[in-house]
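Please predict the structure of the following assembly.
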Amino acid sequence: MLKKKIAILGISTLLISIVFVFVILNDNKHLPSATIGSTLDPIKGYLVDDIKKSKILLNSELNNEKFLINIFSSWCAPCRDEHKYLLKFKNSNIKIIGINYKDSKKNMSSFLNELGNPYYAIVDDKDGYQSIKLGAFGVPETFLIDKKKNIVLKQIGPIDDNIYIKFLEILKK
Amino acid sequence: MKYVFFILVCIISSNLYADQKIDSKVIEISKNLRCLVCQGQSINDSDSDFALDVKELIKKNLKEGKKDEEIYNYLKLKYGDWILYKTPINVSTIFIWMLPIIFILIGLRFIVKRIRFE
């Protein structure tokens, strides 16, 4: 009787621990995406083709179209890797708002002169508040905004082939 | 002249005191926040860009006169419950909160059985 009880206790402990280990292993990188599904907060920036670089509210600038927001910086190495994908998006007529995270204007323009400018508008983010507004953790990060100005998809880290295709599928829908 | 000097000293010291108060408040709040990019550290302990930004944001909000609750709620809105060290009680977390109570009850049952047996 006692042996049976000990056996049951042992087996159930083992089962519970297996379940716990499984759950922890499956939950590989716990970075929450709390802002997905929420509406985009107002962001102010300037249009790239505007010589005066006057700051405007970008939310009202992009009406009834899907667009991307990309957080980048000239000092960020993975940003260089994903840059070609951003240019591809631009060539498919997808507008990208670039959030320039903790960067100087000089370094940013030499970065864009070297690699090409995929952005439709640029937002200065010297203190990182714009990135926090989006619920971002750092650079690079890319967000997909739908026609209703809701954040629908988010990529933490650089874009690669698979992610490019994933974004493109939703953009073309 | 003496009075002007005295008033000046008063103003400067009161400003310094206010700054100190805000700084200690920033530490208090950031100790309760999890650094999401450097897990295992609080925002207060971390010097990552993300943690520095959040600390600056807390400072700015406090200077604007915002309450602790408002700051916590804003960050919760942007990063979810995970950023708070104190787990809130809701449907998805109720099991975690109940678990110790369940364990205690099971243990008590064992003890009671043992005592009766003896």
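The CA atoms of residues 6 and 57 of chain B lie 34 Å apart. The interface with chain A takes residues 36-37, 39, 48-50, 52-54, 56-57, 60, 76-83 of chain B (CB under 8 Å).
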